[in-house]
Amino acid sequence: MGAFFTAVLFQPFLNLLIVFYNLPLHDMGLAIILLTVLVRGALWPLTHKSLHTQRAMMELQPKLNALKEQYKDDKEKQGKAMMELYKNEKVSPFSSCLPLLLQLPLFIGLYRALTAGLASKSLNLLYPFVKNPGTISVMAFGFLDLSKPSIYLAVLAAVAQFFQAKMIQVKRPKPKLDGSQDEDMTAIMNKQMLYMMPAMTLFIGWKLPAGLTFYWLLTTLFMILQQAVFMQGHRHRLQGVDKV
């Protein structure tokens, strides 16, 4: 399994990173930027589908809560009614999780490639057509040491994570039903995640080499861009429906 992971994920990402590093500037910071753009661009369709499902699930939440209240004494009917709602709205509650599960091995491969690249390790795994630079300079843009933790990058990554989480949330009116504790609990959990994820990003990024934190920051900024594009398209679709 280890050999398969190395050949399929770790080795290709490592080679791509070194290919970008071998460009005339020989800057690992630039190499990480180019690698991030390439990976996030390839994952764009998958991420777009996940965003669509997340948005649809959030917008369906009031209807789901109403069904829970309506059939609170009959779990079987409640489950059937919820599945019928998903079917009518053409939403799969599991489809938003699948893209994340598929991306997890990619993130692990990228993590290992960045770690090895910053430490000049595993350069013996380069393909024959990829030039071996011998050693890797960990200085990015002439001032940032990517091999050491950076509190500044960690803070920037945490702030970006907060705005990313804030963008996808849907504003809902306050619940009027007496038995709407589920909706209240959902709002509480969303608010907790809104602050918990940035806090975790700050804590972890504070300890990681700056190269990895830099990659996480770039990935989050790319996600913010994609969410902005998605939300703009979503608003246009809603305006088109209103006109009809």
Count of helical stretches: 8
What is Rg?
A: 22 Å
Taking the alpha carbons of the first and last residues, their distance comes to 54 Å
Task: Let me know the largest β-sheet.
Answer: 2 strands, antiparallel
Averaged pLDDT: 83
Element order: H for helix, E for strand:
HHHHHEEHHH
Q: Shape from CA axes?
A: elongated
Structural class: mainly alpha
Uncertain parts: 175-180
Question: Could you tell me the number of beta strands?
Answer: 2
- The portion of residues assigned to helices is over 70%
Biggest sheet: strand arrangement: 1-2
Strand content: under 5%
Q: How many domains make up the coordinates?
A: 1
Properties at a glance:
244 residues, two-stranded antiparallel sheet, 8 helices
Q: Could you outline the blueprint of secondary structure elements for this entry?
A:
Layout: H1 2-21, H2 28-42, H3 44-70, H4 75-89, H5 97-118, E1 139-140, E2 144-145, H6 151-168, H7 181-207, H8 210-243
Antiparallel strand pairs: 1-2
